[in-house]
Specification:
GO molecular function: epoxide hydrolase activity
Organism: Periconia macrospinosa
Structural class: alpha/beta
Family: Belongs to the peptidase S33 family.
Distance between the termini: 41 Å
Radius of gyration: 21 Å
CATH superfamily: Alpha/Beta hydrolase fold, catalytic domain
Keywords: Hydrolase
Pfam families: EHN
Strand content: 5-15%
Number of strands: 9
Strand order of the largest sheet: 1-2-3-5-4-6-7-8-9
Order of helices and strands: EHHHHEEEHEHEHEHHHHHHHEHEHH
C-alpha cells in the first residue's frame, strides 16, 4: 500500500530536531487488484428500490429522511464512470507524507501516518491539526494549497502537521485486546510531535469535530502544547444558559436551535457508532455503496448550503475509508460520546477536567452542527481569541480554506511570542 521512498518534494525537509530513524517518507499506492475489486463491488451493489422516504420530494416538504435515491444513483454512476482514483491518488501524493513509528507507554509500536508542510524557517511555529469523522487527513489539503500559494518553504511561518488519527486510513488501528479513547489518541499524537522535535519550544493544537476534542486533550494534558484553536466546541448548555439566551444574537439563537435539532433528528448515526460499533463496522465494510450513503449524507447535510462539498471531494474521502479498510476501526470515540461520557455532566468538550488553562481560541461558524455561542464556549477555558463568521458549516477547511488560514494566522500571532 505504500513505499518508503525518499522524497524531494518542497516542504518535506524534516525539522532539525526530528528523529529521522522513526520517520519515513510515505507514498499512497493502492494496488490495481484492490482498485479492480472495488469497482466490481460498486458495479454490482444494488440501489434500494424507490420508496416514500428516499424521494427528493420529501425535502420539498421539509421532511428530510436521509440520502435520496436520485443522489445516490448519480454518485454511484459518477464514481464508476467519471471519477479517477489514480488522479486523486497522484494529487494526494503531491503533498509530503510520512509515517512515524511511535512507541506507546506499554511498549507497543503505533505507526502514525501524517501529511505535512515543513518550513525551513528557524522560528516556524509547529501546528498539529486533527481531523474528525467522516473526514481524513486530506480534509485540510485546501488549506495547505492556500499556504503553498502564500509562502515558499523558506518563509512559511509554520510547520503544519496533519496526522491520521489511530484507526484512520494509513495509521495503525487501535489494539484488539483493550478499549481506546480520546486520551489514547491524544497521547500518540503528542508523542508524534515530540518525535518531530517540538518538545523544547512546544506546539499549538488545532482541530474540528473529533479533532477538537483531541486538541483539547493535548492542551490540558501536555505542557508542550502551548495553545489550542478550535472550530468546533460542542457542549451541553451551561447552568446559566437561560440567562445567557437574552444576550444572544438572532443568528446565535439559530445556532443553538440547530444543535438541539441535530440532537433530536441528526445524531442517530453517532448513537449507532457508540452503541453498536461492531455491527455498523461490518455494514460499512461490506459495500462501497453503503459506505457512500452513510458518509455522503454527512457531507451533504453538515456543510453550509452556501458552500456545498463537491462530489469528487466526497468520493475521495470515502475512497480513502474504503481502500484502507478503516470504517470499523475509526469509530471508537463514539463510545465515549454515547455510552459512558454522555452520562457525565459536562462530558468531553467542556468537562471540568478538560477546562483549558492555556490560550484558547475559537472560530464560530453559524451553520456548524452545534454552533456554540461565544458566551457558552468561553466558560470552558482561558478564552483569548474569538472570531464570529457569518457563514460556514462543519467543514470550514473544505468550505472556506482562506478563512481558516486567516483565523489560524491571527490566533497564532496573538498567542505565540
Amino acid at each position: 500500500m505504500a513505499s518508503p521512498t525518499t522524497t524531494t518534494k518542497p516542504y518535506s525537509t524534516l525539522p532539525p530536531n526530528a528523529s529521522p530513524s522513526t520517520i519515513q517518507p510515505f507514498t499512497i499506492s493502492i494496488s490495481s487488484q484492490k482498485l479492480q475489486d472495488f469497482q466490481t463491488l460498486l458495479r454490482f451493489s444494488p440501489l434500494s428500490p424507490p420508496s416514500y422516504e428516499n424521494q427528493e420530494a420529501r425535502k420539498d416538504q421539509n421532511l428530510d429522511l436521509g440520502v435520496t435515491r436520485a443522489w445516490l444513483a448519480h454518485a454511484k454512476d459518477y464514481w464508476l464512470n467519471t471519477y479517477s482514483w489514480r488522479e486523486q491518488e497522484a494529487y494526494l501524493n503531491s503533498f509530503p507524507q510520512f509515517t512515524a513509528s511511535i512507541t506507546d507507554d506499554d511498549g507497543r509500536v503505533v505507526n502514525v501516518h501524517f501529511a505535512a508542510l515543513f518550513s525551513k524557517k528557524k522560528d516556524a511555529v509547529p501546528i498539529v491539526r486533527m481531523h474528525g469523522w467522516p473526514c481524513t487527513f486530506a480534509e485540510y489539503f485546501p488549506v495547505l494549497e492556500v499556504l503553498k500559494k502564500k509562502y515558499d518553504e523558506g518563509d512559511l511561518p509554520y510547520h503544519i502537521i496533519l496526522p491520521s488519527l489511530p484507526g484512520w486510513t494509513f495509521s495503525s488501528p487501535p489494539p484488539l485486546d483493550r478499549d481506546w479513547k480520546y486520551a489514547d489518541s491524544a497521547r500518540i499524537i503528542h508523542k508524534l510531535m515530540l518525535a518531530l522535535g517540538f518538545g523544547d519550544n512546544g506546539y499549538i493544537s488545532h482541530g474540528g469535530d473529533i479533532g477538537a476534542a483531541i486538541a483539547r486533550h493535548l492542551a490540558v494534558t501536555y505542557p508542550e502544547c502551548k495553545a489550542v484553536h478550535l472550530s468546533f466546541c460542542h457542549m451541553p448548555p451551561p447552568d446559566d444558559a437561560e440567562a445567557i439566551e437574552a444576550t444572544l444574537t438572532v443568528k446565535e439563537l439559530k445556532g443553538v436551535q440547530r444543535a438541539d435539532e441535530f440532537t433530536r433528528t441528526g445524531d442517530a448515526y453517532g448513537r449507532m457508532h457508540g452503541t453498536r460499533t461492531a455491527t455498523i463496522g461490518h455494514v460499512l465494510s461490506s459495500s462501497p455503496l453503503a459506505m457512500l450513503a452513510w458518509i455522503g449524507e454527512k457531507y451533504l447535510e453538515w456543510a453550509d448550503p452556501a458552500h456545498p462539498i463537491p462530489l469528487p471531494t466526497i468520493l475521495t474521502e470515502v475512497s480513502l475509508f474504503w481502500f484502507t479498510e478503516c470504517a470499523g476501526t475509526s469509530l471508537y470515540t463514539y463510545r465515549e460520546d454515547y455510552r459512558w461520557g454522555v452520562n457525565q455532566k459536562g462530558y468531553l468538550h467542556n468537562a471540568e477536567w478538560l477546562r483549558i488553562e492555556k490560550p484558547f481560541g475559537y472560530s464560530y461558524f453559524p451553520e456548524e452542527l452545534a454552533a456554540i455561542p461565544k458566551a457558552w464556549a468561553e466558560k470552558t477555558g482561558k478564552f483569548v481569541w474569538f472570531r464570529r463568521h457569518e457563514e460556514g458549516g462543519h467543514y470550514p477547511a473544505l468550505e472556506m480554506p482562506e478563512v481558516i488560514v486567516g483565523d489560524v494566522e491571527d490566533f497564532v500571532a496573538s498567542v505565540w511570542k
